[in-house]
Amino acid sequence: QQQVKQSPQSLIVQKGGISIINCAYENTAFDYFPWYQQFPGKGPALLIAIRPDVSEKKEGRFTISFNKSAKQFSLHIMDSQPGDSATYFCAASDGGATNKLIFGTGTLLAVQP
Amino acid sequence: SQTIHQWPATLVQPVGSPLSLECTVEGTSNPNLYWYRQAAGRGLQLLFYSVGIGQISSEVPQNLSASRPQDRQFILSSKKLLLSDSGFYLCAWNWGRQETQYFGPGTRLLVL
Questions:
Q1: How far from A103 is each of A88, B45, B76, CA to CA, in Å?
Q2: B62 in contact with A, Cβ within 8 Å
Q3: CA-only gyration radius of chain B, Å
Q4: SS3 string of chain B?
Q5: Are B94 and A46 a contacting pair at CB < 8 A?
Q6: Which of B101, B107, B110 to mutate to test the interface with A (most CBs of A within 10 A)?
Q7: Contact at CB, A99 and B99, closer than 8 angstroms
Q8: Residue A52, H or E segment
Q9: What was the pLDDT predicted at A99?
Q10: Contacts of residue B5 in chain A, CB cutoff 8 Å?
Q11: Tell me: the pLDDT tens digits for A46-93?
Q12: pLDDT per residue over A8-52, tens digit each?
C-alpha cells in the first residue's frame, strides 16, 4: 500500500514530441505528489509538484495531470527537447512527522534530435 | 540560501573495509535529514532519516548505520563493506512539515 508504481521504465521520444510518464498509488492518505528530474551522476531535483485538490498543474512545458478517483497521476513534457533527457521519478507523501517520500522506480527518458 | 554538501564524490573501497560518508547542510537549522541509496538504473531506497541530533530511524535492516553528531551533519557508516553496498548514495533534507526534499550531489561508491 506504500508503493508508487511508475511506468514506463524507459521512453524514447522525438524532439518536439510529447513525453508521458504515469504513476499509480494505493494509499489514499498521500496528499503531495512531486516529480523529480535526475541527470546522470547528479542528485534528483524537484521539477513540479501537485496536491490532490487540483486536477492539473502546469509549469512551462511540464504538466502534472492528477486523477484522484483512479489514484493516478502523470507527467507530460510538451515539445520535448534533447536537454530533457534524464531519469524522472514520481513520488508521494502523506506528510507526517518525517515527511517521507515514497518514490517510483524511475523512467529513463531519451529525446532524440 | 540553503546548500547541501556530500563527500567524497566518488569512493572505491575493498570488501570488508569500513565506510564513512558525510553530508552537511548550510543555511538552515534543525533540518530533517535523509540517506538514500540508488542502485545502478534503479529507484531511490530510503535507508535512514533523522529529525534531530542523535535521532535516527532505520528503514531497511542492513550492513549500514547512520549518525547525526551535529544539527546539520549526517553520517553514513559501515564497519565492513559488502559488494552489495555499491551504489549511488544520496543525502537529502527538508525542514519542519515541508514535504519537498532537496538532494545533495551524491557519492558514488564502488565496492570491489
A1: 10, 8, 21
A2: no
A3: 13
A4: CCEEEEECCEEEECCCCCEEEEEEEECCCCEEEEEEEECCCCCEEEEEEEEECCEEEECCCCCCEEEEEECCEEEEEECCCCHHHCEEEEEEEEECCCCCCEECCCEEEEEC
A5: no
A6: B101
A7: yes
A8: none
A9: 73
A10: none
A11: 999 999 999 999 999 999 999 999 999 999 999 999 999 999 999 999
A12: 999 999 999 999 999 999 998 899 999 999 999 999 999 999 999
Put simply, the answer to whether B46 touches A34 (Cβ < 8 Å) is: no
Question: Which one-letter amino acid corresponds to residue B93?
Answer: W
Scan for cell 524511475, then name that residue: A106
Q: Is the Cβ of B5 closer than 8 Å to some Cβ of chain A? A: no
Task: Give the pLDDT score at A92.
Answer: 94
Cβ-based contacts under 8 A for chains A and B:
55
pLDDT in tens, A89-106: 999 998 776 678 999 999
Q: Please report the pLDDT score of residue B31 as a whole number.
A: 93
